[in-house]
Amino acid sequence: MTSSAIAVEPPPTDARQLTKDGLLKRDPIYIESGRAILYAVRAPSPRLVLMRLDLQTGETSRYHKQSNLVEFRPTLSANGLSLAFQRMTGNDVCSLYLADLASGDERAISTGKKTSYNAALSPDGSELVYNLSGQLYRQNVSSGKELKLAHSSGRNDWPVWSPDNKQIVFASSRNGDFDLFVTSREGETIRQLTKSRGLDMRPAWSPDGEQICFTSNRDQNYELYLVRADGSNVRRLTRHDERDDFPSWSPDSKRIVYVSERGGRHDLFERTIRD
Questions:
Q1: What are the Cα distances from residue 187, in Å, to 102, 127, 156, 203?
Q2: Do the beta carbons of residue 257 and residue 245 sit within 8 Å?
Q3: How far apart are the first and last CA of the chain?
Q4: What pTM value is reported for the model?
Q5: Count of domains in the chain?
Q6: 7 found inside a domain
Q7: What is the pLDDT of residue 11?
Q8: Residue 6 placed within a domain
C-alpha cells in the first residue's frame, strides 16, 4: 500500500531541546538502553566527531577521544552489544567500522568499493546494509560475503532494517523522485511505501515494528513524518519554518530524537510519540 496524503495530524506535544550549542549535527541514535544519545557534531578538527550526550545530566563527551579522523553515521544493534560507524580514512575514502562494545575492539569492514555510505547494522548485529555507488549491498559481518540488494535505475540509499531482521526500508529515485520502499532481506520482493512529489528520505523503523519516521520536503520544507509499516496513515510530526531531519527512535518506541534547525542553529530535540 502507498500513501500520498496526510491522513491525520499527531496530537500536539512539545519538543524537548537536548543541546544548545547550535553546532551542525547529524545521525543521533539512542544508546545504553535509551539513557544516552550518540551523534555526530561539527568540530574544529576533525570536522565531524562522535559525541555522547548523557540524558540525565546533559553532559557531553567525545566518544573517541583520541581519533583525528572524521566520524559519523553510528548505528547500534538491538541488544546494544555492537556499534557500526563510518570514518573518513583518506581523500574520498569512507570506511566502515564495527565495534564490539563489551570488549572495546574495533575493526574495519571491507566492502566492494573503497567508499560506502549510510551503513545500517542489523538488529541482531550479524549483518550490515549500505550504499555503494548509489546501490544497496548487504554483508554478513562474520564471513564478509557481500550481496547485491534492491538494484534499480536511479539511486537507492538510506537503508534501515526492520526490528525482526527480515526487511529493509530505504529511499529510491527509481520512479523519478525519492520515495520509500521496503525489500525483503534477500531482495526477492520490493513494495513501495510512500508516493509524493518531493524527497522522502532517511527512514527510521520503530523498534516495535509499527511505524517508520522519515524526512520529507513534500510540503516545500524539510519536516518529519510518520507512516505505518504497511504504508497507511501518513502524518506530519513537525511543523516550523526551518529544517527537521535525522530522526531516530528510542528503544521503547515512545520517543524520537532528531536534529532541528532554528534560527540558523542546529540542535538535538526529542518528541514523545503518542498513538
A1: 32, 14, 13, 18
A2: no
A3: 20
A4: 0.93
A5: 1
A6: no
A7: 43
A8: no
